[in-house]
């Protein structure tokens, strides 16, 4: 029985890491839903992601939630992330006729909005980070 003790302790530690990460993510999503009830400008999941990012940065700085705690559980989530995009693919197939009739307009709007947001975020980050060479 003693030769299995390191294996079992490592297994329990891994399970505890997964449970802690699941609790943190679920708590942030719940907090995002609560924020959404007061400020319904964004979807609750986006509020939850913002709260999660704040919790991660504060937790990493204080040492309460070190970055390495999230590596293994997030690797599993990223590995299966492609399954999340299956409903999007079904939606694209369902609205194929709309994409055929207005596809170029939709593509133009998507590209222009993406580049506009990249430019705005880039300029804001340079300004907020103290780089005075903003053009």
Automatic annotation (TrEMBL):
> Where is the chain membrane-spanning?
12-34, 76-96, 102-124
Pfam families hit by this protein: LrgA (PF03788)
The UniProt entry lists the main location of this chain as membrane
Decide whether keyword Cell membrane is in the record: yes
The UniProt entry, under PROSITE patterns, shows: PROKAR_LIPOPROTEIN
Give the location in the cell. Answer: Cell membrane
* Keyword terms: Cell membrane, Membrane, Transmembrane, Transmembrane helix
Please report the record's description of how this protein sits within the membrane.
Multi-pass membrane protein
Q: This protein is called what? A: CidA/LrgA family protein
**Species for this entry:** Paraglaciecola aquimarina
